[in-house]
Amino acid sequence: MKIVTIVGARPQFIKAAPVSKALREAGHTEFLVHTGQHYDYGMSQVFFDEMRIPEPDVNLGIGSGPHGWQTGQMLIHLEEVIRAQKPDSVLVYGDTNSTLAGALAAVKLLLPLAHVEAGLRSFNRDMPEEHNRVLTDHCADITFCPTQTAVNNLARESITRGVHLVGDTMYDAALQFATIARQRSTILQDLGLEQKGYLLATVHRPYNTDVAEHLRSILTTFLEIEEPVIFPVHPRTRQKIGELYETLSLPRSGSRLKLIEPVGYLDMLVLEENARLILTDSGGMQKEAYFFGVPCITLRPETEWIETVEAGWNILTGARSAEIQFALRSFSLPDKRPPIFGSGTASLEIVRVLSGG
Q1: 63-100 in b/e burial notation, b at 16+ Cβ within 10 A?
Q2: 156 burial type by CB count under 10 A (0-12 exposed, 13-18 middle, 19+ buried)
Q3: Are residues 291 and 232 in the same domain?
Q4: Quick one: which of 235, 342, 225, 220 has its CA closest to 291?
């Protein structure tokens, strides 16, 4: 069996790593295409290096740009690659422009399409990711769902054939790489951090970065927190912070906010596992916080991972400073953490289904 796998962004590298390993160990041929949506070392190559993902067979090098242009360029080039490779099926991950472009290329070429992390819904159509995931699910022949909620979401949209509840491949990755991360990473020592002695923050969603009021509110809140706040800054977010610099003094005198460059996967796992609390608008980090039993405040008014909220480990605040501060003061963790993301064998189940098992 020959699979063309399409990835393009940091979360997809993580999701794909255990599946690529399982595919190759099962004797299948995988042709890995990197669209170049994330293209610098800190957001791309470091993940291939650390996770020992095979080097992409093709890097399209598309880079950043407006959504329509970026998706169109990906579609043009992916169609050429897929035609040349003649795979048995195409595999896409998540909800990025790379995901949608890969889905469209596959269906236009009448090839079976499989979507990993299918069925997620934020029910916020202002999010580009929501359109990408909905359209991809409706294109897909096989949908691999991480949770029962995802299966239920698809059923409400009359998608019931080819639906498989397999668990979350990011959980597979966390289990596989956490031990390695603890052995190799020196990030805590490098930053002078104590276990459970800091907060970890990330911000990259357009909801927060493209609305100056939201980004200013979040940054002001970070500056006022009386604990160390470690903030690995996405390149796009750093640009937006720069645009606010005239109206926001960074760093503020006495602030314990530390802005750092993006870190690799192993360093991020260690930062997540040892944080007292995580503040993020990332879907992947909400899950990883749950994997490690770390409370999470999500800087959005909604989430695709509603299960983490229902379990009591995640609070939605949006970008308003008062709500973030209230969540920081009032967070009370439950006694239990249900295994909502499977047993860590999602990648094996995906390969079994793709193999016709």
Answers
A1: eeeeeeebbbbbbebbbebbeebebebbbbbbbbbbbb
A2: exposed
A3: yes
A4: 342
- The reported pTM is 0.90
**32 and 54 co-located in one domain:** yes
Among the listed residues 58, 48, 43, 30, the one whose alpha carbon sits nearest the alpha carbon of residue 114:
30
| Nearest CA-CA partner of 96 in 191, 12, 221 | 12
Burial of 295 (0-12, 13-18, 19+ CB in 10 A): buried
Q: Are strands 296-298 and 277-280 parallel, antiparallel or unpaired?
A: parallel
- List, in order, residues 6 or more apart from 87 with CB less than 8 Å away: 2, 3, 4, 31, 111
Task: Say if 304 falls within a structural domain.
Answer: yes
Helix or strand (DSSP H, E) at 91: strand 89-93
Taking only the tens place, the pLDDT of each residue in 280-339 is 999 999 999 999 999 999 999 999 999 999 999 999 999 999 999 999 999 999 999 999
59 phi, psi to nearest 5 deg: -115, 110
Name 46's Cβ contacts closer than 8 Å, sequence gap at least 6: 264, 265
Do 143 and 176 meet the contact criterion of CB atoms below 8 Å apart? no
Query: How many alpha carbons lie under 13 Å from residue 229 in its C-beta half-sphere?
Result: 25
**Rounded to an integer, what distance in angstroms lies between the CA atom of residue 85 and that of residue 146?**
29
Provide the residue range defining the domain that includes 110.
Answer: 2-168+342-354
Which candidate in 34, 204, 214, 234 is catalytic?
A: 204
Write the CB contacts of 265 (distance below 8 Å, at least 6 apart in sequence): 13, 14, 46, 47, 50, 51, 177, 181
Position 177 in a domain:
no
- Taking only the tens place, the pLDDT of each residue in 226-243 is 999 999 998 888 888 888
In a domain, 245, yes or no: yes
Q: Give me the phi and psi of 97, to 5 degrees please.
A: -60, -30
Place of tokens 């860590």: 344
Helix axes 235-244, 212-224, angle to 10 degrees: 90
Q: Is 234 a catalytic residue?
A: no
Cβ within 8 Å of residue 237, ≥6 positions away = 203, 204, 209, 215
SS (H, E, C) 100-145: HHHHHHHHHCCCCEEEECCCCCCCCCCCHHHHHHHHHHHHCCEEEE
